[in-house]
Design a protein that fits this description.
It is a single chain. By secondary structure, the protein is α/β, with parallel strands linked by helices. It has 3 domains: 118 residues, 3-Layer(bba) Sandwich (Glucose Oxidase, domain 1), CATH 3.50.30; 106 residues, PtsI, HPr-binding domain (Enzyme I, Chain A, domain 2), CATH 1.10.274; 314 residues, Alpha-Beta Barrel (TIM Barrel). The strands form 2 sheets. It has an 8-stranded parallel barrel with strand order 8-9-10-11-12-13-14-15, surrounded by 4 helices. It has a 7-stranded mixed sheet with strand order 1-5-4-3-2-6-7. The longest helix is centred in the N-terminal third of the chain and has 30 residues. The chain is globular and about 75 Å long. It starts with a strand and ends with a helix.
Length: 566
């Protein structure tokens, strides 16, 4: 899979895990082993603090929060105490106790059926390997020390590996495993380092110091290329750089179709620090501010004032440009250690997002008060996630109005008017969008969940990944239903899922009449370039034909032919 665009040509740097093999031994002084364990934990924490600080400076708070989570793992008594108990009960060395306990947790998390919990297995694996290296006095890999141009080849890249990459020297990377939504892929896109993941066998084929080409545009990797191949990809690299320069010229331009009709290109963000990337890439707004990052990597809920500062910062930086803030989307698949949330068989379909907020309105009201207070600093739009019924939307809006009145009664300033909308990510909502459209100010279509819910296929499950089909006519008909419903009531419809920045999807969505496209900041300028050469009127004329097709493949072929895509 092409995980991050661009072309990298350099020699192979094999990032290999150190030899962490050990002998299980019986010990006479368990207390000494417990001390060794805690010494290794302390050194690991110090290293992770440095990596977190480095990440915050280079990539921003959202990515740095990954290491806050890692630090919490190293301080978690649920992990540390069983290791200590094993040392004392079995009289074994710290290495054996750490390995056996960590593997028990890793296997448990790997066996879970949702992406977020499986990622926790990778986090535990990452941090416990670091601790093991210190117990064994083995040097842990430090990509930050790379000082020549290379392409990294690895089985996988941990978040701590990726955060240390210096793009001056690391020209790209390729891995055996991983997907577009993995931590390393997301960081690669933020760093603008070309990446291809999921090759299955690159580490078996690419030898140290051999030349390698990583094509993050088409997802190809060429080992030991010929001079002709190098020349070909150097030319492709130059063409890509020229494209980027052309895109940059449109930074301060409005997004208009070939006939001059405007559509809005916005960005998805997670923290106030991400706004810089939005503005640098010519974003016309923030289409999705994921507020859950304010709640993660902490020991307690963020206060009203902490949230107010974050929301105000984003609104002030964006000026009069719209900022769509999604209220808390957490619970079930995104756990907070400090909330006693129930274990669930299927958390993606469980107690999360608006369902959690309506029951725990003490949490919800604090967030709404912070948002309302911040509303005076910019063009705020509030959006409720995971809405399944009209009653849920009405209840959420009623609580919002109550808190607005409470603030006014307290003499606090609140914006007179702001839009209140909802995400459409549940098929039932898309089906009766006309009823919702009478009560909302806008829709934002969350295609990541809408697709997997409609197709009954977990997008992270490799065996059914073929069913994750953004261009499936069933999905397109639901999207069309939502857009038509919004327009019938004089409202606007946007999209904040991955599909909004997809070059095949963009012409389809333009023809369906989508008003706002929200995507990763680095996708904005390529999308603007594409849109300026597309005729919305012409694409709209193909609407009926596309919606009546039977398969994704037919849709893709049709779009490529009509837009001259290769």
């Amino acid at each position: 899979m092409a995980a991050s665009s661009g072309i990298a040509i350099a020699k192979v740097y094999r990032l290999e895990a150190p030899d962490l093999s050990y002998n299980k031994t019986e010990v006479n002084n368990p207390e000494q082993e417990v001390k060794r364990l805690h010494d290794a934990l302390d050194i690991s924490k110090q290293e992770l603090e440095k990596i977190k600080d480095h990440t915050k400076k280079s990539l921003g708070d959202e990515h740095a929060e990954i290491f806050s989570a890692h630090l919490l793992v190293l301080s978690d008594p649920e992990l540390i105490k069983p290791i200590e108990d094993k040392i004392k009960a079995d009289n074994v060395n710290a290495e054996a106790a750490l390995d056996e306990t960590a593997n028990m947790f890793i296997d448990m998390f790997k066996g879970m059926d949702n992406e977020y919990m499986r990622e926790r297995a990778a986090d535990i694996q990452d941090v416990t390997k670091r601790v093991m290296a210190h117990l064994l006095n083995v040097t842990f890999p430090d990509p930050a020390l790379i000082n020549e141009e290379v392409v990294i080849v690895a089985d996988d890249l941990t978040p701590s590996d990726t955060a240390q990459l210096n793009k001056q020297f690391v020209k790209g990377f390729t891995t055996d495993i991983g997907g577009r939504t993995s931590h390393s892929a997301i960081m690669a896109r933020s760093l603008e380092i070309p990446a291809v993941v999921g090759t299955k066998e690159i580490t078996n084929k690419a030898e140290k110091d051999v030349m390698i080409i990583v094509d993050g545009i088409d997802g190809d990797v060429i080992i030991d290329p010929s001079s002709d191949e190098i020349n070909k990809y150097e030319q492709k690299q130059q063409e890509f750089e020229k494209k980027k320069q052309e895109w940059a010229k449109l930074k301060d331009e409005a997004t208009v179709t070939s006939e001059g009709e405007h559509v809005e290109l916005a960005a998805n963000i997670g923290t106030p620090e991400d706004v810089e990337g939005v503005l640098n890439n010519g974003g016309e707004g923030v289409g999705l501010y994921r507020t859950e990052f304010l709640y993660m990597g902490k020991n307690q809920l963020p206060t009203e004032d902490e949230q107010y500062e974050a929301y105000s910062s984003v609104l002030k930086q964006m000026g009069d440009k719209p900022v769509v803030v999604r209220t808390l989307d957490i619970g079930g698949d995104k756990e907070l250690d400090y909330l006693d949330l129930p274990d669930e068989m299927n958390p993606f379909l469980g107690y999360r997002a608006i369902r959690l907020c309506l029951e725990r309105d003490d949490i919800f009201r604090v967030q709404l008060r912070a948002l309302l207070r911040a509303s005076i600093h910019g063009n705020l739009k509030i959006m409720f996630p995971m809405i399944a019924t009209l009653q849920e939307f009405r209840e959420a809006k009623a609580i919002l109005n109550e808190e607005k009145q409470n603030l006014i009664d307290e003499g606090k300033e609140v914006a007179e008017a702001f839009e209140v909308g909802m995400m459409v990510e549940i098929p039932a909502t898309a089906v009766i969008a006309r009823q919702f459209a009478k009560e909302v100010d806008f829709f934002s279509i969350g295609t990541n969940d809408l697709i997997q819910y409609t197709m009954a296929a977990d997008r992270m499950n490799e065996r059914v990944s073929y069913l994750y089909q953004p261009y499936n006519p069933a999905i397109l008909n639901l999207i069309n239903n939502v857009i038509e419903a919004a327009h019938a009531e004089g409202k606007w419809a946007g999209m904040c899922g991955e599909m909004a920045g997809d070059e095949i999807a963009i012409p389809i969505l333009l023809g369906l009449g989508l008003d706002e496209f929200s995507m990763s900041a680095t996708s904005i300028l390529p999308a603007r370039t594409q849109i300026k050469d597309l005729s919305k009127q012409e694409l709209a004329s193909f609407k009926s034909e596309i919606l009546s097709m039977g398969t994704s493949e037919e849709v893709v072929q049709f779009v490529k032919e009509k837009t001259n895509q290769s």
